[in-house]
Amino acid sequence: LWAESWADFQKQDVSGECFSQIDFPIRIRDPQSIAQPFIDCQVTAEFELVQDKSSANAMRVEGFCDSLDGSIYRVRFMPMQPGEYRYTIRIQHGQRFAEQKGKCTIA
């Protein structure tokens, strides 16, 4: 069930530097609907360096709940080389999910 309105992604296109952490926060509009926020939601992200067409260069990152009430989830990414990355972040709770695609430009 596509239900984008239950999760708000805070960033889309970002820039940063190699070996510097980039945060991607996700705000949950109705955190009371998640009984156990630390285990009931799955947050995953995939980052792919655009210049490298090899699918072996895609990096999968797990996200996590970053608030006691379940209102904030977060993905942290630390790029290892410069370039442009495309990413997809997905949060899922039961049958509902939300997804965001964007890009990171890394110097």
Please give a structural write-up.
With 107 residues, this protein is mainly β. 4% of the residues lie in helices and 53% in strands. It has one helix and nine strands; from the N terminus they run βββαββββββ. The protein has one helix spanning 37-40, and strands at 7-9, 13-16, 22-28, 41-49, 59-62, 64-65, 72-77, 83-93, 96-106. The strands form two sheets. Strands 2-9-8-4-5 form a five-stranded mixed β-sheet. The chain has a four-stranded antiparallel β-sheet with strand order 1-3-7-6, with no helix packed on it. A hairpin with a 6-residue loop joins strand 6 and strand 7. It is elongated, with a radius of gyration of 14 Å. The mean pLDDT is 89.
β-strand amount: over 45%
State the share of residues found in helices, binned by percent.
Answer: under 10%
Low-confidence segments: none
SS summary, helix count: 1
Summarize the helix and strand pattern as letters: EEEHEEEEEE
Q: What is the tally of beta strands? A: 9
Structural class: mainly beta
Q: How would you characterize the largest beta sheet?
A: 5 strands, mixed
Q: Any idea what the shape is? A: elongated
Adjacency order of strands in the biggest sheet: 2-9-8-4-5
Gap between N and C termini: 38 Å
User: What radius of gyration results from the CA coordinates?
Assistant: 14 Å
User: Overall pLDDT, averaged?
Assistant: 89
